[in-house]
Amino acid sequence: MNFLEERILKDGIVKDGNVLKVDSFLNHQMDIALFNEIGKEFKKRFKGNKINKILTIEASGIGIACIVAQHFDVPVVFAKKAKSINLEGEMYVAEVESFTHNCKNQVIVAQKFLGEKDHVLIIDDFLANGCALQGLIQIVQSAKATVEGIGIAVEKGFQPGGRIIRNLGIQLESLAIVERMDSTTGEIEFRVQEG
Amino acid sequence: MNFLEERILKDGIVKDGNVLKVDSFLNHQMDIALFNEIGKEFKKRFKGNKINKILTIEASGIGIACIVAQHFDVPVVFAKKAKSINLEGEMYVAEVESFTHNCKNQVIVAQKFLGEKDHVLIIDDFLANGCALQGLIQIVQSAKATVEGIGIAVEKGFQPGGRIIRNLGIQLESLAIVERMDSTTGEIEFRVQEG
């Protein structure tokens, strides 16, 4: 069991409707020391990959992405979810469906921040249905840039996102994959990973 | 002139309608090395303050807040702007008006992450009318916690937010205060600060 799985068992809470609350350390209150452990682990797992940019999506991906970026010494670009009047000029746009908010969002990145020379590591806190990630992949492809890999903190292994993305042939590393959880007992079972 | 003012002169773009675009390094693409300089500077400016938590607001405050937090060795809590089904339990709620989006938002923090023992440094990327900050201050006060200070990257000195907040007697440190800018010439003039 790795450091993140241990932390999820200690502080994560299983709620009805397949909701795993990790808001005390991951996506509302943020444990920066833990994020640095996550960064170290991604640096190890993506060691051979040539990465010059990290891409994430607002809001809860940003904190992890920024701390992880220090381990790769690269800038971070975060995709925005709604059109702002401060976002002008040419933009890449992908449409994604949000599981938690039950609505459709546009994912937007200014074209000047992503181009064909970029080798991108995509970072996010959660992977469930994979809609947000598919939007980010779509944007990297629109930019003719390369997806070097995807680093996720917590994957819900019983939802289809992980399988869909691995089937695209992309290196997807999820530090904790929840295989099964039970809101009545609070039990959480992780997929056994190598290494 | 400090490092951030220099960077704004180099890479910031003045647009019509008093818009200063710093999206190539601050709030869309993020220069993590620059954020670490910002963290170092805030650590210096808030040296005597007892700080055990950083509070920011999604989305563009999160990256700076997380990097700054490393210099204080404290966790970050980010306020959310809309009610999510994953945000449950007791919450502090403040209503704020957004200048850039021309709408009202609720600013929300779960009560369990802010209490009377907390000494809070509020961090954000921009200060203009100060509505978001006033929402965050309101939330800290609802929690009976203490605002130890506010650290801002870029303040628009010709808009009222800075004055309103300094009039509350709060230590507000803005690393770059734009006094005047001109979209026809691209000129930017900063307020002269001591130190």
Broad CATH class of chain A: Alpha Beta
| Cα-atom radius of gyration of chain A | 16 Å
| Count of helical regions of chain A | 5
End-to-end separation of chain A: 10 Å
Q: What name is given to the CATH topology of chain A?
A: Rossmann fold
Please give the domain count of chain A: 1
Q: What is the CATH architecture assignment of chain A? A: 3-Layer(aba) Sandwich
Q: How many strands appear in the DSSP assignment of chain A?
A: 11
Search tags:
homodimer, 195 residues, alpha/beta, Rossmann fold, six-stranded mixed β-sheet, two-stranded antiparallel ribbon, 27% helix, globular, xanthine phosphoribosyltransferase activity (chains A, B), PRTase_dom (chains A, B), PRTase-like (chains A, B), cytoplasm (chains A, B), glycosyltransferase (chains A, B)
Quick description:
Chain A is built from five helices and eleven strands, in the order H-E-E-E-H-E-H-E-E-E-E-H-E-H-E-E. With 195 residues, chain A is of the alpha/beta class. Chains A, B: Pfam families: Pribosyltran.
Structure in words:
The structure is a homodimer of 195-residue chains. Chain A is of the alpha/beta class. The first copy, chain A, has one domain: Rossmann fold, CATH 3.40.50. Chain A has helices spanning 3-11, 32-45, 61-72, 131-142, 161-166, and strands spanning 13-15, 19-21, 29-30, 53-57, 76-79, 91-98, 103-110, 119-127, 146-156, 172-181, 188-190. In chain A, helix 2 (32-45) crosses helix 3. The mean pLDDT of chain A is 93. Strand 5 (76-79) of chain A pairs antiparallel with strand 3 (29-30) of chain B, so a sheet runs across the interface.
